[in-house]
Amino acid sequence: MAQSQTDSTKNHWVLTFVCADKPGIVHAITGAILTAGGNITESKQYTSVDAQSGSARFFMRVQIEAAASLNEFETEITPVANQFGLDYKIDEVGRKMRTLILVSKSAHCLNDLLFSQRAGYLPIEVPAVFSNHSELNALAAFYSVPFESHSLSDEGSKLAFEHMLRDYIKSANIELIVLARFMQVLSAEFCAEFEGKIINIHHSFLPGFKGANPYAQAHARGVKLIGATAHFVTADLDEGPIIEQNVVRVNHSETKNELVRIGQDVESKTLAQAVRWFAEHRVLLDGERTIIFN
Amino acid sequence: MAQSQTDSTKNHWVLTFVCADKPGIVHAITGAILTAGGNITESKQYTSVDAQSGSARFFMRVQIEAAASLNEFETEITPVANQFGLDYKIDEVGRKMRTLILVSKSAHCLNDLLFSQRAGYLPIEVPAVFSNHSELNALAAFYSVPFESHSLSDEGSKLAFEHMLRDYIKSANIELIVLARFMQVLSAEFCAEFEGKIINIHHSFLPGFKGANPYAQAHARGVKLIGATAHFVTADLDEGPIIEQNVVRVNHSETKNELVRIGQDVESKTLAQAVRWFAEHRVLLDGERTIIFN
Amino acid sequence: MAQSQTDSTKNHWVLTFVCADKPGIVHAITGAILTAGGNITESKQYTSVDAQSGSARFFMRVQIEAAASLNEFETEITPVANQFGLDYKIDEVGRKMRTLILVSKSAHCLNDLLFSQRAGYLPIEVPAVFSNHSELNALAAFYSVPFESHSLSDEGSKLAFEHMLRDYIKSANIELIVLARFMQVLSAEFCAEFEGKIINIHHSFLPGFKGANPYAQAHARGVKLIGATAHFVTADLDEGPIIEQNVVRVNHSETKNELVRIGQDVESKTLAQAVRWFAEHRVLLDGERTIIFN
Amino acid sequence: MAQSQTDSTKNHWVLTFVCADKPGIVHAITGAILTAGGNITESKQYTSVDAQSGSARFFMRVQIEAAASLNEFETEITPVANQFGLDYKIDEVGRKMRTLILVSKSAHCLNDLLFSQRAGYLPIEVPAVFSNHSELNALAAFYSVPFESHSLSDEGSKLAFEHMLRDYIKSANIELIVLARFMQVLSAEFCAEFEGKIINIHHSFLPGFKGANPYAQAHARGVKLIGATAHFVTADLDEGPIIEQNVVRVNHSETKNELVRIGQDVESKTLAQAVRWFAEHRVLLDGERTIIFN
User: Fold this and answer.
1) Are residues D32 and D135 in the same domain?
2) Which of A45, B83, B280, D124 could form a disulfide linkage to A60, CB 3.0–4.6 angstroms apart?
3) CA angle C266, D259, D202 (to 5 degrees)
4) Is the pTM of this model over 0.95?
5) Last residue of a domain, which of D58, D92, D126?
């Protein structure tokens, strides 16, 4: 019945849903869980109101312990889902989410993800790492993860790469695509097709810097904080809904290269946190923003 | 129905409770709220399991919007409270909690509390500030808060002071006592009598330093972080359940006096946060620890 | 001879300078200090190299303890300053810098500055607070600081205000102008005339938001960090050289009003830090960036 | 002449020293550097005063660019060192410090050190990793670092291990010993012999917890911050001079295992920072505290 001490003889599920906010949702859903013999071991909810229209959407994440099977459980949930128009997902707690990682040459994010995954700190499994370069092959090999390098030199090869990705994502049941310093822009069509399933990481500064070589610009302006933002990739936004952000303090004496190193540490940590929350079904999309149930 | 946009023609309550964890609590309580015509606008819950006994306690905080009166609402809640053995409280959202502040000579925490209160950032009202010194009289007067100075030179005067406090707390309906750098030890009896209602702030270091003049010790040991802990005061513990903690980075070149200034900033901020959460019914006691529903 | 324990029978000066980087500067300046019977009790230096031209500028801040008078001391410094082309300042350590504060309606920054000043934490004296509104009169009065309200309704009144400011700054020997949430734009001429002497504070977000009501935008985009930047005001830049930046973590459940409160805390703290460093001659300008000798 | 842009046709040295504080030290040392044709590209100094005796010690770190050879340079430095009683070291900037890493079973710190070393972010070379367990052999092998496992089951084997360590440290010219979660206590004799050369990492909490299983205790007390301290190992102190500390925010809902994961991230980052500063000669010992010239 408890989050920090679970009964290993029982099943554990995580249910997430979003719907229009109406009285009685929580009562109905907890009633269904109760009827299925389930205990709620963790629960978070949030109501989001549109400032213009005043319309409200309700978000919820529930962890459940139950002797019942998933089928028996869904039998109880379905009528409530229909009645309240729930857009919902049920998953097994701790199940490893199938995650494809795309990289270029920078190792820091990939190293952190694979190390954390093997240490049991990230509930993901990584069937493949794809890259437009070959440098990170050995790192993937150390963690026994298949690695493929694809040259992306022109529009044709990029198109072919995205075709291959689509096929692979389907055949390998990929649920999450992580751009771990993948320095190629994916097409708007691809981003739209997998909206809410692609997580990217990039550096962040105050103020923001446009154009090439942002660390050089940050150094030139003498910023006192450098940071990173992990966000969903979307077709029409420069930067999609933010999942996590962190910053680190720097000063005038740090060289551009030191800013890069510090920035990479923040990037690794921030991306891993975003991936962890996503894989634990703690990230829900609310238009241009995310609800994080952590 | 929404946390960020409330209907001002309706009543808004905050319900907090704790009980033994059993299936059906959430279903029952949301059912009662629904029957009373209430909408849940914010909800947090947590199940705490005792590592030894395995017994679990359930904590919940719910904000509700309803046309019904408090009486009508309590009529629905009472049977559920009885059935599940809820230890519960209901309060009006945003009602200003009656808060007594005790101080000595240091102004930083009192200044921050009174400024924040007047700015509308702390849902408290402060009918009085009591002190064992007279220095902070003018500050209290600027904020139009009655100030009393009591000499606490011997055991007799301390005993008389605590007697006066008891009477005042009762007659003035004080709900929270804040020790804003009050440098006198309250008796074990007094602490026990008001357990869970007295919040104290003190500096915190890694490692902890025993004895007098901790900033001098921290300076001598060259600590890299100094911080503050806001906690409940209890009769039998050196330091009661922790409500909030913060730290700030320092270095070898900061003098002892600079450490004191930095420490005071952290103390002010940390104490104000703890008071805010308490006044919003976001702090629930779970044995030696706190559950913070923020 | 020591920073943390000074000899009160002696004089204490802070010398700051910038010059083209050449071998022998430090040797020459320490020689002059030695000849004047001075001991260096704190010293920081930095060499800044222009990435394009490769030309280097040398920045230094030195604290000195000496029995000699300022005149005797300057006699030794002058030849070195001439030889190496130093742009230098000498001041007494701890002397209170004459500071004019401009405000509008928001009290948080003014309260923090005046409280810190009176507590002895900010080496400034504040002969006046000027405002385009009357709301903060009582706060200034509590700290016994003269307060003037000037209506700035049209171009004529703005021009007259800046004329008055110029006269006041001159007659009152103002060394620093702090815009403590002063919501009026100063003219480019005024900014240019007092470049390096006007410090402003504004909120900062990742990503940055253009246009009105940035807290509403930050809320809509679900940022996870909100912050503040204290910077010099310049004529030709949207945002002048950055002096200090801080951020605080927020989440989806915080309302816009809560973001505002949190943002104000960060603003107060960040502005006070920038003012402290400036008043202690720890902020040196290096083109578009600052060197902070803290 | 510049820190951020060095002349690769010249030599670059870092000079660190400590001595009794007397007038003229900086002048003398900069004179010697000047005579040797050297330019100072980075310089930090600090004077530490004993609060009881009032006696002062002077610490300095200087980076120098020069055409001269190390011999020519030392010829100029030696008379100054003799005159002022300098305890000094000269090293080549960026030279990789020979570092022995001791581990037990936990991989997080070792992974971070070896990854950072290979990425060029830590100026160390690691000729060996020694352990009292075999688990981390594969990780060391991936980074092509020799790994030795030694059973430390009784006093005899511990004594033999320390004998072997002494021999290895001598024969392999080890300059730094890093205890990267090495769960064995080294003897007081060993610690004394290598004082100032052994860096350890351990978790840190507010308040501190004595005895076994500190994460369980921290969880039970509901701490809001968990952290790590990197420090020198000394014979007579529970915890030697602190080099670096960091904390991360946690809350009541994090399980003990999550606290462990978060704690490990902080440990890795904090240890790597301490090792970086040590290898760059930025850490100077001042009795029970460290001076960090970062």
Assistant:
1) no
2) A45
3) 90
4) no
5) D92
